[in-house]
Amino acid sequence: MPKTISRDLPLSEFTFRRYEKPYDMSRRDLIRKLCLSTGLLQPGDSRDVVVDVLHALLDAKVKKLMMNSEQVKDEVINLRKKNKLNLKGVAGSNIRRQLKRLRDLLIAEKIKNEYRITEFEDLHVLFDSKIEEYLIKSVVSRVKEYFKAVK
Question: Is this model's pTM higher than 0.85 or not?
Answer without folding.
Answer: yes
